[in-house]
Write a structure and sequence with these properties.
By secondary structure, chain A is α+β, with helices and mostly antiparallel strands. Chain A is built from 3 helices and 5 strands. Chain B is of the alpha+beta class. Chain B starts with a strand and ends in a 5-residue tail after the last helix. The chains are: A alpha+beta, B alpha+beta.
Chain lengths: 83, 157
């Protein structure tokens, strides 16, 4: 699946998007955050406070307990500051 | 209902957008517009410019969902939402919401509702560039809890 990062999450991870293949057992967005956090310093920094980072599956806001099965695009980003 | 959503780098013309929404129609009795403008300060500190990052497809989808929610709450005849991205200088417009209805109550309320949700739910992020132009002078704007409260109050109405 494709993962996209925005704003300071993107800067900390060091890239805007990537294809990932998480292991079995990574079932929810929260699981994915925990797994990503172990993929290197940048990821650990981006997700150091997982409750701050927001997520979306296929362009809809979701919570950490949302299941990722069947998702084609998952995005992580800071609280929004548009308008 | 006529709906226009545009995400663009270029500035927009408020009068032109109102005209586009109302042209040739005699059922519209009220138009409310909200324009968000880039200030020259953030938290009391001067800024050189704003840089707006966005999540293109989701921004459009999310704005569309909130327009649909507004349409279910009020009798609206038209809505236009334009949000700019990229570099924006102080004094320039950032966002425009235009709501049209037969009477003012719906147009006022829907414009406020849409702005409250745009601020907290539309995937845009502001980065402030301080005078000086160094990378260290670029700071992400922090979300305000007052904006969350403004959006949440609609849940109980």
């Amino acid at each position: 699946m494709k993962v996209r990062y925005f704003a300071w999450v993107r800067e900390r991870v060091g890239k805007g998007e990537e294809e990932i293949d998480p292991p079995e057992g990574v079932a929810t967005v929260g699981d994915l955050v925990a797994w990503l956090s172990q993929q290197g310093e940048g990821y650990a920094y981006a997700f150091e406070n997982p409750h701050v980072v927001r997520s979306a599956i296929d362009k809809r806001h979701v919570r950490a307990d949302a299941r990722i099965a069947g998702a084609s695009e998952i995005a992580f980003f800071p609280p929004m500051t548009g308008g | 209902m006529s709906v226009t959503i545009r995400l663009q780098r270029e500035p927009f013309e408020v009068a032109q957008e109102i005209a586009a929404l109302t042209r040739g129609r005699t059922d519209i009795g009220a138009v409310v517009t909200f324009t968000g403008i880039c200030r020259a300060d953030e938290n009391g500190e001067p800024i050189a410019s704003l840089n707006l990052e966005h999540y293109p497809d989701m921004a459009e989808a999310e704005i569309g969902r909130h327009i649909e929610a507004a349409r279910q709450r009020w009798r609206l005849l038209g809505v236009t939402v334009i949000h700019r991205f990229g570099r924006i200088a102080p004094g320039e417009d950032i966002v425009l919401v235009v709501t049209a209805s037969s009477h003012r109550e719906a147009a006022f309320a829907a414009a406020e509702f849409l702005m409250d949700y745009l601020k907290t739910r539309a995937p845009f992020w502001k980065q402030v560039e301080k005078p000086g132009g160094k990378t260290a002078n670029k700071i992400w704007v922090e979300a305000k809890t007052s904006d969350d409260s403004a959006a949440e109050r609609w849940d109980s109405r």
